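Um, can you check?
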Amino acid sequence: MAWDVLPPEARASFRSALGGDEATWTGGAGWALSIALAELRSYRETNPRRAATAGHVVREVLSDHRSRGRSRTPSGRQPIG
């Protein structure tokens, strides 16, 4: 996962090298976010290290989302939070 192991600058290079469109990257971000949220909930007490990594992924995906100038969801609604 790009958000798990790559810093923001490297993610930008990685994304350029892949050549995918906006929808593909956004779908990947959504997938990464959904997995990380599930892991955060599942591992919070049983595997704190994995939960911390999942929390990192959540923060990175949301940070990318904000830095790309997104203030609304694809449906046009205000995002939660």
Notes: The first helix runs from residue 2 to 5.
